[in-house]
Amino acid sequence: MKSRHWYHYLWIWSIIYFSLGFVNILFAWLGLINFCLPLLFAIIGGNKLFCNRYCDRGQFLRFFGSQAGLSRRHAMPAFLHSTVFRVLFMAFFFAMFGSALWTTWLVAGGVASVQDAVMLFWTIRLPWEWTSTAAVSPWVVQFSFKLYSLMLTSELIAIVAMLWFRPRAWCTFCPMGTLTQGICKLRNKKG
Ligand code: SF4
Questions:
Q1: Which tens digit of pLDDT belongs to each residue from 100-119?
Q2: Is the CB of 177 under 6 A from ligand 1?
Q3: What does the DSSP assignment read for 16-34?
Q4: Domain coordinates of the chain in residue numbers?
Q5: How many Å lie between the centroid of ligand 1 and the Cα of residue 7?
Q6: How far is the CA of 134 from the centre of ligand 1 (A)?
Q7: Which residue from 17, 19, 118, 157 has the fewest beta carbons nearer than 10 Å?
Q8: How high is the pLDDT of residue 187?
Q9: Whole-number pLDDT of residue 61
């Protein structure tokens, strides 16, 4: 039997993160960890250690897809592996992240009011009125909703890919994976 390390249990953090969003949407800010840590590993270390070990989503997909055997392991279409698709998907994903920042900026400047709903796949509006956010600035609330929407949407895509294809199929075209891979290549080329 393969030995287990503490990071193999990081999938629990994925469940905690999305559950906390039901309690209070402000916990969505914790999702920034998943943006900052892989970048730090890639920029400072020049490696994909985050993806290989410490990514809670990667561990979540491995656990449910591989260990729990939920993955159907159908062949992935070739285009999902292609550099063009991966780069376009990354560009789209970060454009959506930029749009979240822009909306937050508008709310902070008093130009727009808070859209207090979680948007699934950028189109399906999920009512999320039970979370109390009265004590903080509206822009903080706005960013929470936007980030949680982005995290939940990408998690659902990752789960569908895990169920239908292989456990970590999402990692093939994950925007953070593509970005950090590019950074590592550049960094190691320089080195
Ligand atoms: S590719 Fe994305 S989801 Fe997969 S381990 Fe890396 S950061 Fe996590």
A1: 999 999 999 999 998 888 99
A2: yes
A3: HHHHHHHH-GGGGGGGGHH
A4: 6-190
A5: 14
A6: 34
A7: 19
A8: 86
A9: 98
Question: d(Cα 56, Cα 15) in Å, to the nearest integer?
Answer: 9
Whole-angstrom Cα distance, residue 173 to residue 82?
9
The verdict on the CB of residue 38 being under 6 Å from ligand 1 is: yes
Q: Is 51 in the pocket of ligand 1 (CB under 6 A)?
A: yes
- Is 174 a pocket residue for ligand 1 (Cβ < 6 Å)? yes
State the DSSP H helix or E strand holding residue 176, giving kind and residue range, or none if neither: helix 175-190
Mean pLDDT of 139-164: 96
**C-alpha–C-alpha distance, residues 157 and 166, integer Å:** 13
pLDDT tens column, 29-58: 999 999 999 999 999 999 999 999 999 999
Asked if 145 contacts 25 with a C-beta cutoff of 8 angstroms, the reply is yes
For residue 53, how far is its CA from the centre of ligand 1 (angstroms)? 10
Distance 168 CA to ligand 1 centre (A): 8
**Ligand 1 pocket check for 184: Cβ under 6 Å:** no
